[in-house]
Amino acid sequence: MSEVSLAAPLGAGPDGVWEVAGRVAEGGLIMPAEVTAAARAIVPEVVRMAPAKVRQGIERVIMGEHLGAGMQWLHDSGVLAAVLPELEATVELAQEAGRKHKDVWEHTKVVVWQTPPKPLVRWAALLHDIGKVPTRVMLPDGRVTFHRHAEIGARMFDPIARRLAFDRESRQRVRFLIFHHLRANGYQSSWTDAAVRRFDNEMGGYLEDLVDLSRADVTSRRPGRRQEAGLNIDALLERIMAIREMDARVPPLPPGLGNAIMESFALAPSRRVGELRKECEDAIERGELEERRDADYYVAYLRGRGLTS
């Protein structure tokens, strides 16, 4: 493809910038310096575009087969700094001292590429580590920490979502995935059934997308590390499915607990009985109570906590 044909879309102004970015991401094209410079010259016009058009342009890039090249071109042309300065700030932000391949920007490009081609999961992958910019701390021994970066990153996404006119449902999903992107990879076999059940309940309808993001977030060059992380997530999913199946057959609380509560505390059938039963369910999820014990065990818990007064 000639340089003239590559540059032609830029004659259309800011729309042309996204056309070039899309072509790079979809075909892996290498833009001549002149084309990139021409794009840089009209970046101020790109910023003034309708938010939905900017979002669609970025989305076309991250859905491309060669998205890493498209993302890099957005950076090289100055478009990224103009429309997503929070992501631009991750360029050359080291995650480990002396390891270039571990900078947040390079890591992010790989994570986006490794996710399934689902737009909102890729948006979450694109922005999952923006919270590392304000939370990075370099320790005297050379280690780097990013305490609470997932939570901070989720908060940073809020103005981005408004700026790019995400609809409410999409905004909630992307924010949730950013906020929780470390959770699945933190699974350990020592988790109790109650902890696994609580994780499953908290993830709800986001579980599949979260697992997709968690798998993609492992970019170690050591094949053994990637395999280990994948197997760990597989183990978590297997436990979730097993607990769901077990709960469908045998609920965590014994039958007749409501009657035992009414008899023990002289309560008539009422909403309060249901609330006390729910207190037991919540205590099981928190790991404070064992599941599938006899009714007296849970009545004793309620009495000991003074919850029936």
Estimate the global geometry from the Cα principal axes: elongated
Number of helices: 19
* Overall number of strands: 2
Percent strand: under 5%
Q: How far is the first residue's CA from the last residue's CA?
A: 80 Å
Which structural class best describes the helix and strand composition? Answer: mainly alpha
CATH topology of the largest domain: Hypothetical protein af1432
Second rung of CATH, namely the architecture of the largest domain = Orthogonal Bundle
Q: Report the helical percentage.
A: 55-70%
Q: Strands of the largest sheet, in order across it?
A: 1-2
Order of helices and strands: HHHHHHHHHHHEEHHHHHHHH
Unreliable residue runs: none
Overall number of domains? 3
What does the main sheet amount to?
2 strands, antiparallel
Radius of gyration: 25 Å
In CATH, what is the class of the largest domain?
A: Mainly Alpha
How would you describe this structure to a colleague?
By secondary structure, this protein is mainly α. The protein has three domains: 83 residues, Hydrophobic Seed Protein (Orthogonal Bundle), CATH 1.10.110; 151 residues, Hypothetical protein af1432, CATH 1.10.3210; 48 residues, no CATH class. Helix content is 64%, strand content 2%. The chain is built from 19 helices and two strands. It has a two-stranded antiparallel ribbon. A hairpin with a 5-residue loop joins β1 and β2. α14 crosses α16. It is elongated, with a radius of gyration of 25 Å. The termini are far apart. The model has no long low-confidence stretch (mean pLDDT 91).
